[in-house]
Design brief:
Blueprint (H helix, E strand, L loop, with lengths): L4 H8 L3 H9 L6 H14 L5 H8 L4 E6 L5 H16 L3 E6 L4 H12 L5 E4 L18 E4 L8 E5 L1 H14 L5 E7 L6 H16 L9 E4 L4 H14 L5 E4 L2 H13 L9 E3 L16 E4 L1 H17 L7 E4 L1 E4 L8
Parallel strand pairs: 1-2, 1-3, 3-4, 4-5, 5-11, 6-7, 6-8, 8-9
Antiparallel strand pairs: 10-12
Helix pairs in contact: 1-2, 1-3, 5-11, 7-8, 9-10
Length: 335
């Protein structure tokens, strides 16, 4: 038979209420007591009865995390933190991807409205707020990313400021012709790509440099393969720039591949910098300079806001901006 909370409590020498507090989180339990309970949970292979919990409190014990795509290293790292940190709060996480499709967003919100999940962490990419255009009937929702619906809770990195800082950093290192890889095509603009391009243009403006349209490399998607193909085509038609600002590390990997294949030395001939500081960035050849932010802090902030929203549907919306920093590695040289 499946172990119960009472079984765990008896083995750990605590009350059933203490076991519930450890499982569900939200109530401080002394570290030594928590450790005893967790040992008992593991020994008895305890599995929470989410259905019974839902009948008691009207909740499913599940939340949904939706990302535009699940294939990138960035998405995988972010999802991992959400799953681990949600588990500590007694939630399971349903993962889904929207494929940048507003219809999928609407489907996911409908699922939350039907109480199949208690809340939703949504990462829309369109500059239009799509399904978030109105709060009417909106389930507990936290937006991650740079769309700007003022009426919902949101967690994001300040992409515009970070991109301006990257541009200034490259200019301070003596680079003047800075190519950007990851700009959106006119019909496919995303909040992140537009904000990072705005930051790049702002950095040039501060330095009194007129932007050169030929240094703008748009991509159909932010994948390594798409970046490699587009950057190779761009190199065929344009002289090598002083530096390349790739809008993600995955894009930067595509750029580094093309440059290496053509015998172009990084950073001797051209500097390259990315954005996100995914795990592989430090192990690229050369090690990739990039913009870094704490993904654990990012996921924690989103889950904190979602917990608050589930408990108080009428709380005023809150925005959390996660700090960022430029990590200097071997891919940028001083001219």
């Amino acid at each position: 038979m499946r172990a119960t909370v009472r079984d765990v409590a008896a083995l750990a020498g605590v009350s059933p209420k203490t076991v519930s507090n450890v499982i569900n989180g939200g109530v401080v339990v002394r570290p030594e007591t928590k450790e005893r309970v967790e040992r008992a949970l593991a020994e008895l292979d305890y599995v929470p009865n989410l259905s019974a919990r839902g009948l008691r409190n009207g909740r499913s014990g599940a939340i949904a995390l939706t990302l535009p795509e699940m294939g990138s290293a960035y998405s995988a790292e972010l999802a991992q933190w959400f799953v681990e940190l949600a588990r500590e709060r007694g939630w399971i996480v349903q993962l889904d991807q929207t494929g940048n499709d507003p219809a999928r967003e609407r489907e996911l919100v409908s699922r939350a409205r039907a109480h199949l999940v208690d809340g939703l962490v949504l990462n829309p990419v369109s500059l239009s707020a799509s399904v978030l255009a109105s709060t009417e009937g909106l389930p507990p929702t936290v937006v991650i990313g740079e769309v700007e619906p003022e009426h919902v809770d949101q967690v994001h990195v300040d992409s515009r400021t970070a991109a301006e800082e990257v541009t200034s950093y490259l200019l301070d290192h003596g680079h003047r012709r800075i190519a950007i890889v990851g700009a959106a095509r006119a019909s496919e603009a995303t909040a992140t790509s537009e904000l990072r391009e705005r930051g790049y243009l702002a950095g040039l403006a501060v330095a009194g440099i007129e932007p050169d349209p030929s240094l703008r490399v748009p991509l159909p998607s932010w994948t390594t393969s798409a970046a490699a193909a587009a950057f190779a085509e761009w190199l065929d038609a344009n002289p090598l720039s002083d530096a390349v600002f790739a809008f993600t590390d995955s894009i930067a990997f595509g750029v580094l591949h093309v440059l290496a294949a053509r015998g172009v030395r990084v950073p001797d001939d051209v500097s390259v910098i990315g954005f996100d500081d995914i795990d592989g960035a430090a192990y690229a050849i050369p090690a990739l300079s990039t913009v870094s932010f704490d993904r654990r802090a990012f996921a924690t902030a989103a889950l904190d806001l979602l917990t608050r929203r589930i408990e108080d549907r009428d709380a005023p919306p809150e925005t959390v901006v996660v700090p960022h920093r430029i990590v200097e590695r071997a891919s940028v040289a001083r001219r």
